[in-house]
Write a structure and sequence with these properties.
2 strands, 2 helices, two-stranded antiparallel ribbon, single chain
Amino acid sequence: MPKFEFVPSGRLALRLEGPLWEDYALVDQPNRPIETRLNEFFIAAVRVALKVAQHRRDMEARQLAREREEEARRVREELERQERARVAALEKEADAHDRACRIRAYVAARMSAGAASSEPPSDELDAWKRWALNVAYELDPCVDTETVPMKENS
């Protein structure tokens, strides 16, 4: 046995139903036949179509705004990542410069200590000095690589 039985009532009904608008129904009535009110139904149908079209435009505009916001967020994140990389590179260069300066200061201190003694600098100390200064020059990002002293083949 079917769950529902549809029994014709003899009255015609036209309906517009949906989540975006109020339901509209046009039902045949004894004193007002539906045929005389079709214009009313079509006006309601056009209004529903306009509401649906406006809803779609609104949804598309919101989607476009979300996409633009997402793109702007991605651009901001990329710029922030690039800035972090620049800062890290700067810190790395500053650290390398500090190390080069420390090496140069150490070489100068060692040479001063050697100069304070009555003995002349040895060839070994002179070779060490050239090697140590070459290391400092290679580390230092502030030094033009064209002016770095030649490395000795030793």
